[in-house]
Write a structure and sequence with these properties.
- This protein has 800 residues and is α/β, with parallel strands linked by helices.
- It is built from 30 helices and 23 strands.
- It folds into 5 domains: 210 residues, HPT domain (Four Helix Bundle (Hemerythrin (Met), subunit A), Up-down Bundle); 62 residues, Helix Hairpins; 182 residues, Heat Shock Protein 90 (2-Layer Sandwich), CATH 3.30.565.10; 141 residues, OB fold (Dihydrolipoamide Acetyltransferase, E2P), CATH 2.40.50; 135 residues, Rossmann fold.
- Helices cover 46% and strands 18% of the residues.
- Helix 26 links the parallel strand 19 and strand 20.
- Helix 26 packs across helix 30.
- About 11% of the residues have low confidence.
Amino acid sequence: MDELQEILQDFLVEAFEMIEQLDQDLVELENRPDDLDLLNRIFRVAHTIKGSSSFLNFDVLTKLTHHMEDVLNKARHGDLKITPEIMDVVLASIDQMKALLFSIRDTGSDATSGINIDPTVVKLDAVSSGKAIDAAVAATPAPSPVAEPEAAADEPDYANMSAEDVEKEIERLLMERQEQDEKRRQEKRANGEAMPEVEAPREVDEGQSESAPAPQAAPQAPAPAAVPAPKPAAAVAPAAAAAGGDAAAAGGTTVEQTIRVDVNRLDHLMNLIGELVLGKNRLIKIYSDVEERYEGEQFLDELNQVVSSVSTVTTDLQIAVMKTRMLPIGRVFNRFPRMIRDLSRELNKKVELVMSGEETELDKSIVEEIGDPLVHIIRNSADHGVEMPDVRAAAGKNEMGIVELKAYHEGNSIVIEISDDGKGLDPLMLKSKAVEKGVISEKEADAMSDKEAFTLIFKPGFSTAAKITNVSGRGVGMDVVKTNIEKLNGIIEVDSQVGKGTTIKLKIPLTLAIIQALLVGVQEEFFAIPLSSVLETVRITQDDIFLVEGKSVLRLRSEVLSLVKLSDIFGIEATMEENENLYVVIIGLADAKIGLVIDRLIGQEEIVIKSLGYYLKGVDGIAGATIRGDGRVTLIADVAALMQMAKTAHKKVDTTKKATAAIAQAAKKTEPSDYKVLIVDDSKTDRSIMRNSLKPLGVTIVEAGDGVEALGIIKNSDHPFDACLIDIEMPKMDGYTLASEIRKYNKYRNMPLIAVTSRTGKTDRMRGVEVGMAEYITKPYSPDYLMNVVKRHTNLTVEG
């Protein structure tokens, strides 16, 4: 059973690969009916699927492809000219063949598919015999049962056979078929028929048959002896022999250059690469810290070489693995020539599809998602965009309308452009229709620019069609486009000129697993925004912000953008001082864009998207998390959710700077104990020395054993500290880092930070100044000196 299952899987994979290009080939054949190479290629697909399906006992599929083969065989020998009517029949049979293959894939059988191929077979026979198709269909009697059930009744139960029984059954069927073939050959010899051309699988497969005897092959094909399929092993045996003969004739063995790999294995490999990228980022960060600490040391050169090598190899490995998941977008494009051809006939228009960039590659998961949006856009171009032939002729255009579909890379994204040379979008008409349907108000319509009016086509329920047809008019197609592109973190741009045509540009990230992100800071929090959704970043002042109907907006060149604080969206409390200059990250998704006001731009970094897990996966505005080079977890913003949340963020961006005095402690100190001093040192002995030195002052003393503990005390303290004594060499977080973190808090911006350390070098002192140390005390020191320094910096005037 396992062997048969493996053969079936191989058959399905091969069949789906062959029919992938078939629609496009058939549409080309309609335009170039004399292209023999194209005909032979299409014929070989039908012939191969027929042979394999016969071997696997798929009787319905065998019957259909057998009759398709007859028509294509006559066409390739010049006995039949392909017309649009004949092509309609062939394309219908291809659709049924695909449906049968899907049924086999899902259920393991074509007999239970419920697909009636008899009308199609009648039409194919009519085409093959040169009869009128409609007349043949009308004259067809009610379908009579075929002999398949009898065969099925006698068929052995393969499911319960052992491997040995299956082998014996295959041998028996092969022998049986060979005996039947020998009988037929003897009958043909007795009738004086020529033998070499009757059984010529190699000539059929290669499309090389000679003109004289070959036409006789077509009439022989429908002979009753070839149709019964209870002998599944027979059809492949001659073909296998022929293939073996061809290989021998070629004079050498060919090594297969490709292998099929389970997608789950690739996904697992991608996850491992993600972990490796995180490790690389961590290694680079550690190297930076070591280089800063041990500046000038000889080992740094060797360490730098190792880190650079690991970084380069990791990047190359990441690119290589990502490429294994890449598929050419031509796999999606292949369906559109057939679709345009059918639409042209349905709409009575002349439309030609011009494609380029089919070899452009992107991640498999995105290839699977991009198909539906493109279907809707191309259908719209053919239906709404391209005019009727007489209208085009009256406008001085070629009657043949052009729909152009192209793909190309742009940075870490792929751009897909769909353009037509039709009537274009009229912004005034769009606004009028939108107001009429209640999609927007008249006031909104008056304020809209032409560019904004073009985006109305993506609104749910909006359509410019005069009437509802099978193709359009319901106002759902372009809404689906917007939804799907948003899911991929993509951007949509629409450009159009009345009378000239319309261009829709989709910009989509190449992969959704490892991405480039912009790291931003909001108060004490950090967020990663996918770079594919970032249009630009700008620095503005408070004066650049205007209020319109209570909402903050920014005029950027010719556009007016809504502004919203990222801290307002996520409800982050303002604990740090607001700068005069603000950073605005302009993000775009599908057809919309807004400006996010942030506190700091950290930089660009390659990140690996990690799931938040079962309990946190529903957090609004968060798509996942990543681990940065310093080991900290950073949340990744969900751009689509941010756009929605921004609409309900009621707080507006402050247009006035918060006064520092309002944040400072208002109460006046009356006792020495009102003054609070924080001592930070990992040595308990040193903390005792400092505490005893300050005891005569009567101040309140709080102790911390390292920088992390100290930072936690500062963040959670109800009352601000008046001074902080900091040791430099500490575990977890050193004194320099602690000073930098403390200075980020508005209420501690002017708090005296006093370094108490045994490090006496000039570089150490300079670094202390850079991070905001008010004074640098070296050990050992006298208690009086330390007491006077603290008293001076805290302005302690109250006597104890």
